[in-house]
Write a structure and sequence with these properties.
Order of helices and strands: HHHHHHH
Shape: globular
Number of helices: 7
Number of domains: 1
Distance between the termini: 42 Å
Structural class: mainly alpha
Low-confidence stretches: none
Length: about 200
């Protein structure tokens, strides 16, 4: 399949997935399964190996999130819908741990990539994006408001990464993700305050 076609399909699926997630829709996970497959093909085509290897882990986090969003414990239920997980926030200690985890694992993963995959054009940037995505996905799976802060950082670094390897559609999509992320940051804060 032509690289630009994969880029376009991944872009449409990604936009749909994050649009649905930002609107608190559990259907984002079904689109997320297709998006994961499309990204695997895109990253294979562009030799972005850290992001390529991320896709099976992404799939696992997507499955976890799908389950958590639709099977909350009694004390985790949304005031709006008792079958849905409510939005919560990380504490400051948890935020520091999340940032430290991303920085340390990104450095280590970048070092490994640099040795294992010399064709990767930007191993450390690729690794930072990978670790930010994993953290943002994990926080999304737990329905933490903080996930949107992580997604904003992901979008900024992905714009840089995709432009550097010549992708055309993905930088545009990441710009749209930024807009969606800002809106979602605000709307999830409202949900958090309303115990939703």
């Amino acid at each position: 399949m032509n690289g630009w076609v994969i880029d376009l399909v991944a872009s449409v699926l990604g936009l749909t997935c994050v649009f649905l997630a930002g609107r608190n829709s559990k259907y984002n996970f079904w689109v997320g399964y297709l998006y994961t497959a499309a990204l695997f093909l895109l990253f294979w085509d562009r030799s972005l190996y850290a992001n390529l290897l991320l896709q099976p882990i992404s799939l696992g986090i997507n499955i976890l999130g799908h389950y958590r969003w639709t099977h909350p414990r009694l004390d985790e239920r949304s005031a709006e819908d008792e079958t849905a997980l409510k939005v919560t926030m990380l504490g400051w200690g948890e935020r520091a741990l999340a940032v430290g985890t991303v920085l340390v694992t990104a450095f280590l993963w970048g070092w490994v990539l640099d040795r294992l995959f010399p064709a990767d054009p930007h191993p450390y940037l690729d690794a930072v994006v990978t670790m930010l995505i994993l953290m943002a996905q994990f926080l999304s799976a737990l329905k933490k408001w903080d996930c949107w802060v992580a997604w904003l950082m992901v979008n900024i670094t992905q714009i840089i990464l995709h432009l550097s390897v010549g992708n055309f559609f993905m930088p545009i999509v990441c710009g749209l993700y930024l807009v969606n992320g800002c809106w979602s940051l605000y709307s999830w804060m409202k949900r958090y305050k309303n115990n939703g």
